[in-house]
Design goal:
The protein is mainly beta. The protein is built from 1 helix and 9 strands. The strands form 3 sheets. Strands 2-3-9-8 form a 4-stranded antiparallel sheet. The radius of gyration is 17 Å and the shape is elongated. The two termini are about 35 Å apart.
Length: about 120
């Protein structure tokens, strides 16, 4: 399905997509990368619905520590994923060194094909 990228989708006040969310296109996929430092994978919620990617993550306090003061860390991203996404293929998500990567496969017809001359 093709999801156009419109400016309306970037007007949500709770998002921080301009700071710590990057989206780029590769030949066969579209990749979203979000910074979620110190967050464990079980504390991340990812949704993709009608072309909109939503990421919620919260860093929980260590239970072995007694805090006198503690900063709260909550990450929330909301952005449109442009292009023609293959809805039959489930997106893949991975977390490494505080970076969450989500890979969406493109529809076969949206992938550029090289044509050889005989």
């Amino acid at each position: 399905m093709h999801y156009p990228l419109t400016e309306d989708l970037f007007l949500f006040p709770e998002t921080t997509q301009y700071e710590d969310l990057s989206i780029w296109e590769e030949p066969e996929s579209i990749v979203a990368e979000a910074a979620v430092p110190g967050v464990k994978k079980e504390d991340i919620s990812i949704r993709f619905e009608q072309g909109i990617l939503s990421i919620e993550a919260k860093r929980k306090p260590e239970k072995t520590r007694t805090y006198h003061q503690r900063a709260q860390h909550h990450f929330s991203y909301l952005s449109a994923i442009p292009g023609e996404i293959d809805e039959q293929t489930k997106p893949e998500a991975s977390l490494s060194n505080g970076l969450l990567n989500i890979r969406f496969m493109k529809r076969r017809r949206a992938i550029a094909q090289k044509i050889h001359v005989k």
